[in-house]
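Lab notebook, bench 4. Still working through the backlog of constructs that have no structural model yet. Next entry is a single chain of 139 residues. Request: give me the structure tokens for it.
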Amino acid sequence: MASIYFAAPLFCKAELDFNKHLALILRQNGHEIFLPQENTLDVDLSPVTGKEGRRSVFLDDVAAIDRCDTFLFIMDGRVPDEGASFELGYAYAKGKICVGLKTDSRVSELGGDNMMLEGALEFGIARSIPELLVMLEGM
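Model written out:
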């Protein structure tokens, strides 16, 4: 099974709950998951007082991407999350297997998604959790 870095928005309860739910499903299917929101619980992330904590989170996340073999990019939302988009570019440049999950029907351009994101995902974008599980099984 895969060692997966889970890149997703994590700034509201709905996003946090979805990430936690999907990470549990992936773990129950035998995957090792690095979910960034689980590693920042006691870190000061304030732009004013948390400079050291913010840098530490950045370095920890980059190191986790380096260790993973598969990168999962959650594409839901009005636009893809900026941090997750950066992480996708980094993972792609490092030669990681990059897959996406998009359950959201909204698109960003020309009736589709951003071509740079699609390209980094090698157009491997699942539209449901069951489809994602099948995709991961085939890797």
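Notes after review: The radius of gyration is 15 Å. Strands lie at 3-7, 32-34, 70-74, 97-101, 125-126. Flag for follow-up if needed.
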